[in-house]
């Protein structure tokens, strides 16, 4: 079975500082990987995803994540955060040719301070 | 605009009452999902459906029921058997088969008093 671990439940950071949100997964087969963002009292929005190809994927608002197969990680990074990035971030996996659902981590609350 | 609509956004019910949460999508997606979100626990899968008239239990199906009579609709009933129903409920859909992207509704916050 697959699982996702987000070790940091909260990450406080000052505006314009860099940030990394960590995600590790467990799977004996290859996976698809996702980062979703959730603003207060809203649904989830896809931030970026890795299906195949380049291991570095980017979002339109400056976030990037790198798939590292040897470390089974998919950490999310941004070189300079903005107040508007304050939200909860969820990492998720699905398994090609196997599972037909997303498996989520417990989420990381990013709090950006001025 | 295509998307997923959950209604209502806020719902209050007395303990012991069944309540049904609505989820409608106009994305022509085959697959639909219900997740429950509690603080610090992430999203937990309640039920999912890959095709009309078929659905499967997720990790926490006890105390919940669903139906999938139409492709665009996947209502969730929270029954009186659910021990702790107060939570934020999220509906999602995807094209079908292996998930390469899922789209979420805005959620329904259910409070049982």
Give a written overview of the molecule.
- The complex is a heterodimer of chains A (114) and B (113).
- In chain A, a hairpin with a 5-residue loop joins strand 7 and strand 8.
- The model of chain A has no long low-confidence stretch (mean pLDDT 92).
- Chain A is built from no helices and 12 strands.
- The N and C termini of chain A lie far apart (41 Å).
- Chain A is mostly beta strands and 114 residues long.
- The radius of gyration of chain A is 14 Å and the shape is globular.
- Chain B is mainly β and 113 residues long.
- Chain B contains no helices and 11 strands.
- In chain B, the strands form 2 sheets. In chain B, strands 2, 4, 5, 6, 9, 10 and 11 form a 7-stranded mixed beta sheet that branches. In chain B, strands 1-3-8-7 form a 4-stranded antiparallel beta sheet, with no helix packed on it.
- At the A-B interface, strand 5, strand 6 and strand 11 of A face strand 4, strand 5, strand 9 and strand 10 of B.
What's the layout of helices and strands?
The complex is a heterodimer of chains A (114) and B (113).
Chain A: E1 3-5, E2 10-14, E3 19-21, E4 24-26, E5 32-38, E6 44-50, E7 56-58, E8 64-68, E9 73-78, E10 87-94, E11 103-104, E12 108-113
Parallel strand pairs in A: 2-12
Antiparallel strand pairs in A: 1-4, 3-9, 5-6, 5-10, 7-8, 8-9, 10-11, 10-12
Chain B: E1 4-7, E2 10-13, E3 19-25, E4 31-38, E5 42-51, E6 54-57, E7 64-66, E8 76-78, E9 87-94, E10 103-104, E11 108-112
Parallel strand pairs in B: 2-11
Antiparallel strand pairs in B: 1-3, 3-8, 4-5, 4-9, 5-6, 7-8, 9-10, 9-11
């Amino acid at each position: 079975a697959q699982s996702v671990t987000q070790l940091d439940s909260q990450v406080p950071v000052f505006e314009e500082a860099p940030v990394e949100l960590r995600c590790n997964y467990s799977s004996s087969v290859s996976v698809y990987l996702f980062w979703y963002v959730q603003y207060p009292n809203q649904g989830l929005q896809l931030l970026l995803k890795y299906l195949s190809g380049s291991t570095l994927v980017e979002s339109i608002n400056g976030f990037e994540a790198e798939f590292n197969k040897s470390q089974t990680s998919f950490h999310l990074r941004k070189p300079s955060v903005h107040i508007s990035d304050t939200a909860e971030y969820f990492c998720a996996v699905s398994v090609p040719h196997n599972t037909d659902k997303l498996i989520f981590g417990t989420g990381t609350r990013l709090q950006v301070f001025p | 605009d295509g998307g997923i609509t959950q209604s209502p956004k806020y719902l209050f019910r007395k303990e012991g009452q069944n309540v049904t949460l609505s989820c409608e999508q106009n994305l022509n997606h085959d697959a639909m999902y219900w997740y429950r979100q509690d603080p610090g626990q992430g999203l937990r899968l309640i039920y999912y459906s890959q095709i009309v008239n078929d659905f499967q239990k997720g990790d926490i199906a006890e105390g919940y029921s669903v139906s999938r009579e139409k492709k665009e609709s996947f209502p969730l009933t929270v029954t009186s058997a659910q021990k702790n129903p107060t939570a934020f409920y999220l509906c999602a859909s995807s094209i079908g088969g292996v998930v390469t992207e899922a789209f979420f509704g805005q959620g329904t916050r259910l409070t049982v008093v």
